[in-house]
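Structure tokens please, single chain.
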Amino acid sequence: MKTGRIIYFILFLFLFWTETSWAANQYLTPAKVEIKKVAGKFQLYKNGEPYFIKGAVGWDFLEELKNAGANSLRTSPRLLDEAHRLGFSVLVNLPVAAERSGFNYNDEVAVKNQFERVKKIVEENKNHPAVLMWAIGNELDHIPGDLDYNLKMWDAVNEIAGMIKEIDPNHPVLTVVGYGKLEKIKDIKERCPNLDLLGINAYAAVLKVPEWLKEYGWDKPYAVTEWGPSGWWEVPRTKTGVVIEETSTEKASVYRERYEKVILGDPLCIGSYVFLWTSNRQERTHTWFNMFHNNLKTEIVETMQYMWTGNWPKNRAPRIDALKINRMEAIDNIELEPGSINTALVQVTDPENDELRFEWELLPEPTEFGAYAGQGEKKPQPVEGFIQATQKNAIQFKVPEENEKNYRLFVYIYDGQGNIGVANIPFYVN
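Here you go.
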């Protein structure tokens, strides 16, 4: 009996050791990631297999992202374990500061300290199986006001890239730039030879990226590290300066066009990270860049599922044809009298003829905006009691009494199947 217990105990220790040993050693065998040029086209390989990045920027709805056919996330190291659990690779964002946040690239001590911080992060995470590539900072070239950047910034980026390649030969290294100051490609080519590829953030301008890179002789690969709807800086405005947002249906259309023409169409492109896989984040509006609203899927989500898998979901989101006030569209520079009663109507269809529910919200237009990427912006307080009468897809509403002020009327269309259509229309009280 005693001998049996000893044997059982030894067997238990062996099984425990092998299990814990595997758990420890699973992070000693990182993915081997490399980029090759095949028949004039760049191809990413992961553990010897071709790997096209079907990714998203975000931190929410990760199960939905997996089900939609994505294979990668652009995020911070803190989500590496969760990403690995779900089968995602990660473009790891490394915290390299931009001049817009007050960092001084002439300060050698600060630059050195930053180098050491990044080195520590890479050393701690380089063997994690979810790591795909490293991203050194985000749009370091951008300073609000379109100011010139310090060229020493690129020297610091190149030094960090060289360090990463030395201690981690398994994962490519990039830095992320925006679409602006197009001549910066020359600076990057001259000062950052250690970079394996480039990350590019672009929205409506993403269609111009292939020609831009060609013009400046960029001959390495790139990934589109942020892309999505037309940015608020790229769309038409009313005569009072209010930006006109695309509807969820219009956004779905431009997402598809941009994906097919650039991300699938450019031989330099190895994939992308679509923006933004979350809900209700405020930047100009609380609907502008989000692919979800109130935790429900917009038409953009199903479009990306089709782009990634070739299959549409069984039930699809409502389609918005138009949103009008008094038969006028946003581009008509709508002006309404204080206290007047007006009619808003949304023209919408549903692919499965689901019974639709309509919700309306009236917000004053914000007058203060974040200096960069909506940081610090908050959704304005909604106007209460503005609806006077409803008729399915139309309302009569009362305009606030305050004169010479911009407002934005939102409509949310629910299909009861987990999908939503979203649109808004601005007007001026005068």
